[in-house]
Each structure stands twice: as C-alpha cells, then as structure tokens.
Please model this.
Amino acid sequence: MKFLFWLMNFKILSGEINETNFYETAEKIARQIDPSWKWRKQELGALRYSRIRFRKFCYQEFFK
Model:
C-alpha cells in the first residue's frame, strides 16, 4: 500500500492525474502491481482530499 500511496502522491503533485481520475488510475496501477490485490479507496482518500483542499486554497488566494 505504501508504494501505491507514494506513487499516487507523485502523480497528483506532478499534475499527471487529477481528482476526477484519481481512483481509476489507482485501480489500474494496483492491478499492475498485483491483479488479486484488493485495496480500499479509503486508504487513498486523504491524499485525494488534500489535493482538493490545496486547489481550493490556491483558487481563493489567486482571485482575492
């Protein structure tokens, strides 16, 4: 799980993925790591939510 978490962290910070395709991309990567692996969305939810909060903060600061 740690590998998937850090890989998704890098991808979302680099702009390769966004909040809308976050879980789909995580699912594809998890299947490549181990097709039988059952991961939970809740384990990556904090990472996705922090990105949404950061984007909202930047938007508010920019358009003050």
Observations:
- DSSP finds three helices and no strands in the chain.
- The mean pLDDT is 81.
- Residues 2-62 form one domain.
